[in-house]
Automatic annotation (TrEMBL):
<protein>
    <submittedName>
        <fullName>ComF family protein</fullName>
    </submittedName>
</protein>
<dbReference type="InterPro" id="IPR051910">
    <property type="entry name" value="ComF/GntX_DNA_util-trans"/>
</dbReference>
<dbReference type="InterPro" id="IPR000836">
    <property type="entry name" value="PRTase_dom"/>
</dbReference>
<dbReference type="InterPro" id="IPR029057">
    <property type="entry name" value="PRTase-like"/>
</dbReference>
<dbReference type="Pfam" id="PF00156">
    <property type="entry name" value="Pribosyltran"/>
</dbReference>
<comment type="similarity">
    <text>Belongs to the ComF/GntX family.</text>
</comment>
<feature type="domain" description="Phosphoribosyltransferase">
    <location>
        <begin position="135"/>
        <end position="228"/>
    </location>
</feature>
Length: 230
């Protein structure tokens, strides 16, 4: 009773608001209100995961099987607003929430049982320490909950790279060459893996990490991101 009263008091003084429209949330809503949820700019990549615009981006860079994004990315759009909160406003719960939403959508479309585990693109330790968490790992954890998959957190970034922003396609590819590795005691042989990140632009980062997994024995690597543009 006392705990409920305290929670009600906090909700009155500091009401939870929608991450998109800033309206107050009902008790049954989490992070995003129902009206905004139904208007999320979702893609249909998972319905043609082997033959869509994202799959064509990584063609020639890596032998991945499926490539998917949960949301369409647009500057100053809803997806950018959510990503900004996740990456720069100390809201790791946003990554888990979006991962859970997308995982539920994938389950509805027959993907449950497709993969053995999910991995996230790692941040360099210095950047992760500065941010406090890896936003892509938060997304992976949400997917894990919905899909019933273990999360493997043994893919590591071995060197610090400059930002991919404002780089050309080929500069992005060169920037992430030989950046990733697996810790020595991890065995991905004969595994089907879902590799995830927050955003996909050219696909260079995801392709570089996927190639490490394929080179160390994974039989299949699929890619999923929170948001991607055309």
């Amino acid at each position: 009773m006392r705990f409920t009263f305290f929670n009600d008091f906090l909700a009155l003084v500091f009401p939870q608001t929608c991450a998109i429209c800033r309206c107050s949330l009902f008790d049954f809503e989490e992070l995003i209100c129902r009206p905004c949820l139904v208007q999320l700019p979702m893609t249909s990549h998972h319905k043609r995961a082997e033959d869509n615009d994202l799959a064509k981006k990584v063609m020639g860079l890596s032998q991945v099987t499926r490539v998917m994004a949960f949301l369409r990315f647009a500057k100053k759009g809803v997806s950018q607003k959510l990503l900004h909160q996740l990456k720069y406003r100390n809201r790791p719960e946003m990554g888990r929430f979006l991962g859970k939403l997308y995982g539920q959508e994938l389950v509805r479309n027959g993907y449950k049982g497709t993969w053995d585990s999910v991995l996230a693109i790692p941040l360099h330790p210095a950047k992760e320490k500065r941010r406090g968490y890896n936003q892509s790992l938060m997304f992976a954890e949400g997917l894990s909950d919905a899909l019933g998959l273990p999360v493997q957190d043994q893919l590591v970034r071995t060197k610090f790279t400059t930002t991919q922003t404002n780089k050309s396609r080929w500069e992005r590819i060169a920037n992430v060459e030989n950046v990733f590795s697996l810790v020595s005691d991890v065995d991905v042989r004969n595994k089907k893996l879902l590799l995830v990140d927050d955003v996909m632009t050219t696909g260079a980062t995801l392709a570089a990490a996927a190639n490490v997994l394929l080179a160390t024995g994974a039989t299949q690597v699929d890619l999923a991101v929170i948001a991607a543009g055309k």
